[in-house]
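Fold it.
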Amino acid sequence: MTTNMLYKRTLWSIIPLHMEDSNLLSMSPLHDGATRLWWVTPLNQVCNMFDVLLQCLHPLVLTVVGRNIRNFLATKRANCSPQVFLDNGVKMSLVHQEVGAYVLTAAGTPHMSLNLGANVASAVNYTCLAWFGRAVEYMESLFGAWVRPLFIREAPGTLDRSACCCNVVVW
């Protein structure tokens, strides 16, 4: 799990198209302010999106990133209009996030957002906690029962190992 990041955003500010570091899952609550729009690419559309980016990006950009679209998205500088993807047959989900709502993105899903006014949001990346259980079992089989995981507790809630399972987080 990464450290929670707090963002204060202004009218019409954007978060460019990107995928989370190391293809982690992400959770982003909207704490205060104006609505935020999200465009999320379903996993079954990622290859189509990459094909569109390969056709639309300037050849110099493609050379710099070694024609690797994941490297390009990792720069978090992909200011692409969702309309370009929709016009080229890439299906995207549009989510209207209101104050108090969380947006969870699956591992490897490209997404972007637009703020419809000033707001305060946060974001955290994490792995599925079920994976931690398997990792602990594996480590115990190698090194004995002295290996124990550290579970992070952050206000306002707690990530509870028993309550979490692949993309479901209880706060």
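The longest helix spans residues 129-143.
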